[in-house]
Structures are given as C-alpha cells and as structure tokens.
Amino acid sequence: MTSIPEETAGGDDFLPLVTIVIPVFNGASFLGGAIESALGQTYSSIEVIVVNDGSCDEGATERVARSFGDRIRYFSKENGGVASALNFAIHRMKGEYFSWLSHDDLYLPDKVSQQVGFLTRYEATRTVVYSDYSIFTDEAVADSVSVHMPGVPPKYFRYWLAARSALHGCSLLIPRSMFTEIGTFSERLRTTQDYDLWFSAAEHYSFVHLPAVLIQARNHGSQDTQSRANLAFQESNDLHLSFVKKLLYSEIPGESVDEVGRSYLRLASHLWTRDFIAAGNHSAERARRCGVSSIRVLAVTLHARGTFFLRRVALSFLSLRTKQKVRYLHSLLRGIQRGLKIF
Prior knowledge:
This protein is α/β, with parallel strands linked by helices. 45% of the residues lie in helices and 18% in strands. The radius of gyration is 21 Å and the shape is globular. The N terminus is likely disordered.
C-alpha cells in the first residue's frame, strides 16, 4: 500500500462534514436506493445533496427525492449535464469533503467512515482517497464482481490513469480545497469531465489508494445510445492524447532511460489496444527517443492493433442481445484487468 505524506489532517478528533452529491436525470427507478445508501452511512457527519438536472419524466424523479424530506438537500435546475450538476452542488456544499454518488450506484455503509478514518490514521492533507469497487447488473447485486486497484505511488498516478483509466469517480473522497485551488468539472466535456479533473488535480494533490471495496457500480448492459458512445470515444481519444503530452518525464516509471522507454511503450500498447491511435503514437515516439528500437515498437503495435481488430470482428458476428452480454462480461474482465499493476 502506498504511504501518505505525513501532514496533519486533524488528529483523532478529525470528524469533518462530508457532502455526498447525487446528480440525477430521469433516474426515478434507482434514485431511492442511492439516497438510502448515502443516508445509511455509519459516519454521522454528512449532508446529502441531490441535484435534479432537468429531468423530463413527469415529476417522477422529483417525487422520489422529495419523499426523503429534510433528510436531504434537494435542488432542481435546467439540464446541463453531469458536470454542471456536480458543480452546482460544489458551489452550495457545506462540507469540507466531497463524495460523488451516481443516482444508480450504491455506497456500502462504511464508505465514508473508512475513508475519513484512513486520512486520520495517516494524518494526510492535500490528499484524495480512492477505493475499490464492484460491478453488478440490474438484476444481480449479489453476483457483483469486485475490481481491485493497485497501490500506485502518487508520483506515477497520472501515468497509470492514462494507461488504464480504471478509477471510479464515485469511489473518491475529495477535499473541498481541491476545487478551490484546481477548479471544478469542465462543463464542455459531456463524458470525460471526471478524468480531466483527476489528471489535472493529481499534479498538485496526492491520489492514494484505500484497498477496500466501498461502492457498488451498476452496469445496465447497453447503457448508451450510439451517438453518445461516439461522443464518449471522441472525448476519450482527445483526452488521452492530452494526457500523454502533459506527462512529465519524472512521472514515467523507471530508474533509467531504458526503463522509462519501456514504460512509454507499455503505455502506447494500452492506448492502441483501446483504439486511441494518436495518443499511442505519441507515446511510442517518446519511447523511441528513449532508445527503444523501431522494430520493437512495430512488434508491439501489431500485437496491440491485432488484439483490437480481432475483438471488433468477433463482436460483429454476434446478435445485439449477445453483444450486450459480451460487453457486460468484457467490462467486468476489463475492470479486473485494469486493477492489475502495470509497472
């Protein structure tokens, strides 16, 4: 497990108010469960904010939220996307720490208490805590599959984020000071606003892993429309290229130029396998500058691209329903794989 900088977070009596923020759009079916899991935290010093982001479901989402009365703080706004709803809450939160909960996910009862306790034990400030999570389908919470993150040293966190993109935004506990210093979520991004902020913040704050499954993330099978999937891919493609360009030499794992070159090539392989061509090419060029041979780069390119195309061809022969099942299974396997150490 990665050590945390020895700075005081308040000692044994450290009981900061934690604000749990639940943004929701047309989420009446699952919102109640999310709110219950937030209110059911064993940590007592919390406030729960629900932001209705312009739902158009004849008031169903609002009725669910208002049924909890003054146990939550409820707001309604015009639709502007997840980032705008999160920012809306950040500007109104009373807590010293921020914890995001998607309207269709669930917190385990000790999510907040474990993370605050973690900060207390290690007397950490300027620290963001992230945890493990499990993935479940709408029908099978009991059959959830756990995804365990590695204990990545904070100085290599941005490299890992670029290579694996495994972090679940709802597993984080974030000091409010981070938003004041770094800024809030980019509202021009519709699907990658979280990773954009984590990457920027990690240059100034330590992201530290607490090895415990503390949230349950719902997988709906085929959750997105094709147009949204295309938007998500384009945003991710652009974002990962910017990640690779912004990574500093000191953030690349390796004690020598040769080792750094191999790390750049591993990064390129991960990116090519996910079809992020421009980002992979940029990383490969940096590997060459560190002395990695063009022949080795070519071999890795062929293997990574071959893996991507074989997977896509295999999916093209399946029915829509089978594709949805395969994608769900793949998301589970990918999540497990993402947690593997990559250094």
